[in-house]
Amino acid sequence: MAVAATHVGGGIADHVHPEPQGFIRRYVFSIDHKIIGIQYLITGFIFLVLAGLLAEVIRTQLMNANGGFVSNNTYNEVYSIHGSAMVWLVVIPLMTGAFGNFVMPLQLGARDVAFPWLNMISFWMFPVAGLMLFSSFLMGAPVAGWTEYPPMSLQGEAGTSMWCAAIFLVGISSTLTGMNFMVTILKMRAPGMTLTRMPLFVWAQLATAPLSMVATTALAGALAALFMERQFGVPFFDPTKGGSPLLWQHMFWFYSHPAVYIMILPAFGMISEILPTFARKPIFGYKMIAFSSVTIALAGFMVWAHHMFTSGLAPFMQLPFMLLTFVIAVPTGVKIFSWITTLWGGKIHFTSAMLFAIGFVVLFALGGITGIFLASVPTDLHLHGTYFVVAHFHYVLVGGSLMGIFAGFYYWFPKMSGRMMNEALGKWHFWLFVAGFNGTFLPMHWLGFEGMPRRVAVYDPQFQFWNRVESVSSYVMTIAILLFFVNILISLRRGKKAGPNPWKARTLEWQIPSPPHYYNFKHVPTVYGLPYDFSEPLPYRGLDDELNDAPAPVPAGAH
Amino acid sequence: MIEKQSSVKGLGPGFWPFTALLSLLAIANIYYWAVTPLSRWMPTAVTVATQIDELFRVFLAVGIALFIFILGYAVFFSIVFRARKDDPPDALGVQIHDNHKLELWWTVLPTIAVILISWVSVRVWFPIQIASAATPAGLVVESIGHQWFYSFRYPGINGEVTGNMHLPDNEPVTLNVTSEDVIHSFWVPAMRLKQDMVPGLVNVMRFTTDRDGRYRIICTEFCGVNHGVMNTQYLVIEPKVAYDAWYHKWQVKNATASNALPQVSSAPVDLSDGSAAAGQVLFSQKCSACHAVGPFSQRIVGPGLKGVLHDPAHPNLLSGKPATPANVADILQHGLQGSYGQMPTQVQNALTDKDIANLVAYLNSLK
Fold first, then answer.
1. How many CB pairs under 8 A join A and B?
2. pTM for the full predicted model
3. Residue A401 has pLDDT above 70, yes or no
4. Domain boundaries, chain B
5. Distance CA B43, CA B59 (A)
6. What is the ipTM of this complex?
7. Of A317, B136, B233, B262, most Cβ neighbours within 10 A?
8. Phi-psi region of B181 (alpha: psi -120 to 50; beta: other; left: phi over 0)
């Protein structure tokens, strides 16, 4: 049989279940990683809109030095939910749940993730947690920011306990996804795909997965303790009852610093796929990029107390945390240099995806450079808790992660939907977004230096001019994101048919139809090399039948 | 696969002139920060501020120079190596994978940069945070954060000083900061120093005052609904004579103030004008962690308090006394150690007599 002749991998990996037919099993409680990925994507974008609207409430309030758009208390609720939602309901689920789920098994040559049912359960925890988080507005939302430092969070209204429960739930989802991805990457690669032949996006997910698994459990412990203290009076954090407020900060940042890398490493992976594809040349320094992701992930566990330099650490403890934080600059610098060198000598096609990828490199670099100011104890003593910090983490999380999400979306949308995005709208989206973004967050650097603290509903009138510039710029950013969603809706209906490989990319997901079949690959391919050698034949065997009418794999007997 | 691989002469057209331009910009930037003190934008109130500013200027010089190169090359390569209309559709870039020499360099160079940055950081960090602990304490002042103001304690002045904080110029100072409620922060931007004020913990700031002036004290840790206006007090650094006059004024003013911790008074609380509305707010802040507004049996830590004064099934309080407003006030004042556990005292709960009157009025209104 012809099928058997091209079929090199074989064995258990070719085992296929029949595709479910009912709407519910197919699109709602699906166990297909591609559908789950798209579910994460849609849910994440809905929360992006909600949390983005909250951001506009923040910026509108700050138009005037004495506020007045909403009450101080509402303002505090709004920025707390904005931060929490953006971190836990937007960036982390989009980075791992959406793109990890859709792309990673395809790039591995796998038929699904290792634990498809667990994957479905992980997903469904996420919208539930999201609803819980937003429902806290009904009972008095948390006010102490996404960090919820006690004793302030002990004074919060009932919504703070709801916040604990919601974040706990989404944390379980994230932990399970990390475990699922780790096993998938280590055990389900197509034959011949050694670790050093994996696409860099998969490497990024491999570096992220243990962070999700290990760090999130520390957060779960902290949240459980805060919940118990609030609801049952168990004194973990209240100093008047013998607790320690700093205990929370250690537990929280032991999670939340690695979480910063959960939010950025997958974007590193996306950029490392997009740059070579549109520069038409191999990624520069494959091993260095892969290795630096792992280094960053490991080092990310050893720097959490740099968020606490002014909290009251023993002074000598500041030294190791400061120096270890500086060390992370080395692997990060290596990546940035490798990406820029990938541009060198290329034949660069400026698609929307490529623009966002190049924008990512530049804006993320700026966020990394301001990180040096915050990592060094003496300068951090001045900058901690000011708008400089707000500027820094928005450069990393918006200029970095969100730009990465946009780049990845423009890049993989044809694979997900079978249609192309509108490039003209995409370019408007890019330029408006970059202009609005820099207008919003660049002035925050000097506002922070000159004395504007974060989390304030009203501020000194001397800062009003730049705050107005920021607010107006943030509206430009909102218009840009509106264009993005318009673009999606138009492209879904009227977009040009994409075909299997519109970008002439070389990773496995582009060698099969768009959107891929339920079983991904008719036959699991065999891999012979890295996917980035544009002048060589594709390093795969067993893909001959993917794009023709050859019969789909026969489902195994009824289970 | 048929391909048109591009070939590039040397490092590509215009690489060296452009690199020269970027270097020029970077050097101009470094020169600018070398000659521009940050006191142009913000005065320096203490001696360490100048050292911290020097570190800022090193970071600004190096950081912006680095960014000039990253942005410059990203844009330059994008323009020089863009795909052109007359390229064949399958044109490829230069097929290079890596260059070990180059990669070694850009691992070694950032490592050297990191060592340099570490060295300059530690050089400033060590005297502020470590060596200063071994020097004489100088003038020891305490600052206590409250929702939403700062108070101060000076040796030789009874009780607490409110309003602005005064210090003599050219004086070594040890400032111990703490909080009585939630976490606040003591930041004077002109000092470039900040410490969180953590309840139950004393954090120490050491500095030597330098320039006379009025410098704003700002809270940077979120501390509740009025966090944004916890910035109205000033640190006043002034000549010794003026400081002594201010110090003497407070000594006189606080002559009879007590330094002792507040005590529970033995006199019963006057319950005549309690406000149930104010009591309800207090209840949600101070009581609801342990007491539900529900029937007696709805226990969180202590019993539910709905109808505590109007429950025929429980004519007596847990103290064994009849359920009257005066006896409820007595528990709020003195606490209770009983079968249900520990009810804190008035002082532990930070309740004023007026608070107790309001709470009793509120509890009395629950039927």
1. 277
2. 0.86
3. yes
4. 11-83+98-132, 137-253, 276-365
5. 19
6. 0.92
7. B233
8. alpha
